[in-house]
Every structure is written in C-alpha cells, then in structure tokens.
Amino acid sequence: MMKKLLLSLLFGILLVFTLSNVSAVIRTVTTDAGWTTEADAEPNGILIKTNNYNVFIQNFTKASVVNATTGSIRYANCTIMQSASFSGNVVSFTEINLNPNSYYLLFHDNSGTRAYKGQANPTDLIDGTAEARSFCSLNQTTNIGGIVNVGMSNVTLNNSISTTLNSPANNSQTNNNITTFNATITPRTFNVTNATIYVWFNNGTIYNVTTTELTGNSANTTSWNVTLPIIQNYFWNVLGSQGDGVGENRSFALNNFTRRYISSITNGMIYNITSYETAREIFLANITTNGSTPTNAFLIYNTTIRSATITSVSGNMFNISASIDIPIGVVNNTFYFNFSLGGLETTTDSFGQDVFNTSLLMTSASCIAGSSSYLNLTFANENNLSVLNSINDASTINYWLGGGTIYKTLTTSNSSLNSFYSFCLQPQNQTLKTNITFQYSGSGYPTRTFVRNLWSLTNSTTNQALYLLTSSEGIYVTFQVVNSADQLLSGVIANITRSISGVVSIVGAGTTGLDGVVTYWLDPDVTYTINFFKTGFPFFTATQSFTQTGYTITLGSSSTTADDFTREISWQVSPTGGFLDQNALYNFYYAINSSFWTLNEFGFSLYHVNGTLIGSNSSTSNGGNLSLVNINVSNWTGVYMNSYYLISGNYTNSTKNWIIQPIGGRDYSIWNWFTRLGSYIDSPNGLFGIDNFGKIVISLAVIILSIGLVSTRYGIANEAGVMVILFALVFALDVGLDFIPQIQIGTITSPKYFITALTFLITAIILFREEQR
Amino acid sequence: MDKKGNYFLGVVLAVFIWIFGILFIPFVIDNIDITRVGLNCTDLTISFGTKLLCLSIDGIVPYMIWLLVSLVLGLIIGGRI
Description:
Chain A is mainly beta.
C-alpha cells in the first residue's frame, strides 16, 4: 500500500515539473529581424519611427558575424529605454509600448563602450533598398550619416500600412452573440498581404485571432464574423500587413474599439434630467432582452440601492421602474438598473441626473433672491389678540420634497424680538413637507412650543399665528401620562388647543419624556382641549379649564401584546455568512419589514472590531432597505453591525458579527478545486457536457465511494454511524464547497442548503431512534 | 528490535516525512503557479483536456497534504514500519 502511495506522489511531482515548462503566450506586434545584412564593425543602429498604437519591440536579430553581447532600444536622444543580452543572435525585450509618433533606435554593442547620439530626424526613405543609418558619437554633437541596406522589417513605420476600423462603432452594444467586424486596410508602398482580426476579453486575454489573406495595392475592406462566447465587453482591432516578399510591415488601427456584448439593450430611460435634494423621482427604463425575462431588479442611484419593478411590455421588451427620494448632495448622480437575466447579473446603460440644492432658511426679513416664503409665523396675545414681537428660542424643522425617507434639518434660533419669522425655500416651485418644532417667547411672555408634523406647504405663503400668554395670567400645568398599570409613558404626542375667534388654534405641543411628563403655560380661567396620542393606546382627549399645576392622564392599554415589538417584524442583514475576505469590497445591507407595527425609525451602524465607526445609515420610513456599499474591510480581524428599529419610543437592537479572514493559500485548497470545477462546468462551453445533474452525479459518487470505503475498510455498518458520515459529506459538499446545486422542480426551487437540512433531519431521527432502542 | 523500538522509529520517521513534506510544498506551489499561467487555467474557453489538466494541477497540493497526513498517521498509529 505504501509503495502505491509513494508512486502516486512521485507521479504527481513529475507532472508538476513537466507542466512548469509551458510558457505564457506573448503577443507579438512587430519583430525586427533585418540585421542579417549588417556587417559594419562599428556600433550602429536602425531608426524606427512609430505612428501606430500599442506597438512594442519584442526582439531583433543580429548577424551571426557580429560579435555583440548586448542589444538595446534607445530613445532618439540615444538614452537607453531598455537593454538585454543576446541569446545566440536574438535579443529579447520586455513588453514596453513605444510612444506614438516618436523615434527609436535599435543598437548592438559591437565595440562595447562608446557612447552614441541618435540622428533625430533622418530622411524617411522608401524601404526595401536603403535606410538612414543612425549613429551616436562620442562628442554628442556630430551626426554621422551613412547608408546600409536593411530588410524592410527593420525600417520605420513612416510608410506603414493604414488600418481603419469601420464597424461596429466603438462602444456599441449588441445582444446577439455574433458580431461582424469590418475594417479597411490601405497599403502604402507595397501590396497588402493580409489582415488579422484580434478580439480580446475585457481582462486583456486574447479570445480570437483570424487572418484573412489579401492581395493588391489598393484599399481593401474586410469583414469577420466572430462568435462572442460570454456576455461582457470585448476589445477589438485589426492588424493590416503589407510586404514585398522580403519584408513585412504591419500596423494596428490607432485605438482599440470596444464591443459590448450584453444580454439586453437599453432602448431608453425616462427620468427628469434635473432634480432637487429630497425630491421623489421616478425612473423608468425600457429594455429589450435576448429572450430571457429579467428578474430581481434594483435601481442603483449613486450609492443608493432601491428595489425596482419589472413590467412586461411586449415580446422581449420590458420596463423597469423605481422611485426614490433623492439623496442629499448637489452633484450629478449616475444611475442605472441592475437585474438578473438568465442567471447573470446585467445592467442598463448609465445615465446622469443633476441634483440642485433644497434649502430652507428662517428670516425675519424678506427672502433672499431665488427663494420664496412658504411659511410666515406671527405672534399675538392669547387673550386680547394684540400683536406681539417674539424671540425664537429654538426651532428644529425637518423638511423634504418627496416621500420623507430623505430629509434635511434646519436648526436655528433668533434672540431678537421680531414681529414675524418667515421660512424661505429654494427651489421656489415645489411642495414642501415639514415636521416643525418652534419654541417662542416674548418680553413678559413665557416660552411656548408650537409643533406640527407632516405639514404640507407651498409657495403660496401659509400664515400661522402663534399665541403667547403673559406671565401674570398663566400657570405652568404639568401632565404626567401613565398606562393602566401606572407605568410612566414616554413618547406620548400631546398638544393643547383653544378656540380663538372661532378658530381652533394650537397653543402648546410637545412629547412626554422618560418621566412621562409634558408641561404647558396655560390660563387657568380659560377652557382648553388636551390631546394625547401614543401608538398602541387609545386616543385621549379632554376639554376643561386647568386650574391645578398637575394632572395625571391614564391611557388604556389597547391589547395584551402591545409590548411585543418583534411581532410580525422580519429583518435581514447581509452579507449573510459569518466570514469575510481580507481586502475585499463588501456591500452591507439591513432590510426590515413590519406588517403590524409602524416603524418610527430604523438603521444600523457598522463598526471596526475595535469599536471605530465605519459608517451608519438610518431611515424614518416604515421599513425598507439600508446599505453601506463598497466597504473595504482591509486586513481587520472583524467587523460588526449594530442594528435597531424604533417603535413608539422603544428601541429593539441586534448585533451581527463577521470574522475577516486572510485569503492567502486558498488557491491550492480543496475549496479552490471545487470552485474551479464549478466554474468550468458553468462556463459557456462547459466541461464534457457536465451540468447540474452531472454535479449531483459527481457528489453522489463521492458520497457512495467514501462511505463504501469507510464501511468496507473499517467495518462501520451501524446505521447511525453511516448517517453521521453521510451528513458530514453532504455538509462539506453543499455548505462548505457549494458544489451541490439547488433542487429545481418546474419553477419551484428549493431553499439553499435544503439537502443538508434534510440530511441533518434524517440523521437526527435515526440517532434518536438508535438511542431509544 | 523490540516493539517499543519499532514504534519510536516509526514516530521519528513520521516527523521526518512530515517536516520534509511540508518544506517541499512551496516548491510545488511555485511550479503550480507557472503551470496555471502556461495553461491559461482562468480562461473558461480553453479545451476540455486543458481544463482537466488544470483540475489535476489544482488537486496536487490537497493530494500531497492528504498523502502526508495519511503517511504520518499510518506510521504513528500503526506503530511499526
């Protein structure tokens, strides 16, 4: 047995060393091999002028009679770009692109140590007969000319062949996997010999090289049909070639073109070109697919991600739409839709939207240019209605234009007595929504608070009178709010109104604190109406005069489950796993949905393992998704997310931890092997036709062979023991290696790791039954 | 040599194989990298044969480790050589 193992090891080692001699393929753009006619004893060079794109010199060959050890590529001023030693008669260089429209010299060191100066502007000669010979001289001043016969491939690209890419246009897109590439090759000096289409994957790996033989001395337009294997961007170019039978001159078109092979085409996007911060905007894309139905669509708006709705229009045409509240920031936001098509992630074209400022200012004068007054607050004595001047002790206004998920906050105050306060908004033509808390007082008038939520305002100015009561006419009245069990209730929204001149006006508002208390400055001789509201409790109202300094309000409990703030609330955090890779970018999401409670707020904060805040996000909407995208976890050891949601003043918190692990060494692991196998199987040309069924067969074979080996070799025949081994294998293949595909029956797909869960259940049952015997 | 002697020799041999086996792996890894580049293993459009070869190359290190562990455990637990 040991002999067999050692032989296997030896075979593996031999296999590794044999394969290690396979070298990488290097793209050859031009090769200079004309030095065979050179027999001069002096160091000398050939000048090359480049006028094409992405050219580099791979190697050149010296005559065998030349006793040189080093070859070099030099700039026109004779400084060395790079040099290398000859191997035989060939010197090879690393791939360094030459600058377009520049001169270069090829040199060898025939006599070793002399320095030379290049002839910077030689006459451009027709090649095939002679070329300007370039020297460098010791004194750096004298140009020494000479003539030497060289092969064409030595010579400049001045008279090079011209290649023009005709179609498809640069950056054009298609959802057809076959593209016809078309280019025109115009020879100069010599006859055209061939043209070669190059198609590269977007990572630079070459995909297709096809050469078409051509003849003649006039422009030649050629087409190639190329099947693009996978959906991605491709680069393409054409290498034209001319020659005289002795030498050859080749040239690419100046720039590579991009061909986008996508599974869908964006026919158009409907959206407003400009918008304002916090405004609600709707985006609708019309796409045509390759026959698949798009699913799982999201709008990616700058860094904001929102789920989108897909609607079938007709045939392969679909609409994808979403609406968002525009985030804060005066920028041009890029946006597009991301969706799944045939199991692949794809996107629509990207568009841009200019976002302008939404700004609310409080002033006691006229609005500044470019803004309009939306709200005007004036002040009066509550009892005699005389007009007053007031101080703004403090004010906090949350304002927005859209749905309220994104809002801005104005926090301000004014210590001067003013007859009015105007709130001016820029832009001037939008409907503004506000939650306003405004504290005001006057000389001899104690402070009162005006609160109004979800107040919709327009540029048709809303005038609101606020009332004050003199120090001598009022008393402070404290209301303490409790539930039926005499427990203090915080977060109870309260206000107090009074009918003034036949109009019900708010004279005070507030929210109970942790002590369950809210206090008003009231006239004990006047009848007021008090209102208390808290989610989960019945609304409380009472109309009377308040002559005492303290009252207790009891709110009846609405139900016995009122305090279960987890009822019908589902939330999810992603990434779902517990491990992250070092130095990788991750998107962190917190999604929550509540069908029973109304969420006042929810959010999360992401922390470094040492407690340093990485970022946070929150929302006051009733559920939704929050994200922090493109977070580089660097080489930390861990991150954690503290998430919360707020219902009626009660926070429910949770924490999710991730361990960050290094990725070194994985390239040689079993996991990597299965990953590679999976990628090969899932690739467009597959692997021996193996599909998901093949994966299951392989998994089954691994399981049966393993269990069979263990049973026969070690005599494990116990049912429970075999099941434990079976579960371990299934767990490793399914959860650990992600190799077992999900079961699919018709349109129904089993949950992920269903096989593992099922095996665990069966194993548990068998173990339980075993213990019962 | 008595049984205790055999066992001791087995452990020493196991440690020897383990150390040199582990030291050998980095050399194999270098060659695996070169071979992977040469075979262009990351290109999903390569031929079936090349893919199979890439998978064979990928399995060398896990196989070596498995082999080492088997040998070492066999020598230690088996108690004889």
